[in-house]
Amino acid sequence: MEIKQVILKILSSNTEIGEKIHNIKEDESLLDYGMDSLQMMRTVVEIEKALDFKFCDEDLLTANFTSIGSILASVKSVLSDTENN
């Protein structure tokens, strides 16, 4: 499964957004759709489990998890760093 699809599936099942996630543009704020900090952290944990990696503390900034695009960029960055080490 493609990384973006994994993220969308996790967001759909771990936030109040649900299936509406598929209609949200990548740059739109998920906070505007009701995502709160608890749902954000639950999403982070589920992404780590699904893709078998850990975000480092420096990556756990709210700004990195407020839109589909920012989450995708953060995940790809961490996975790229992991592959290069």
TrEMBL record:
PROSITE patterns, A to Z = CARRIER (PS50075), PHOSPHOPANTETHEINE (PS00012)
Keywords in alphabetical order, please.
Phosphopantetheine, Phosphoprotein
What SUPFAM superfamilies does this protein's entry cite? Answer: ACP-like
Domain Carrier, by residue range, is: 1-79
A Pfam family it matches: PP-binding
Source superkingdom: Bacteria
Return the protein name: Phosphopantetheine attachment site
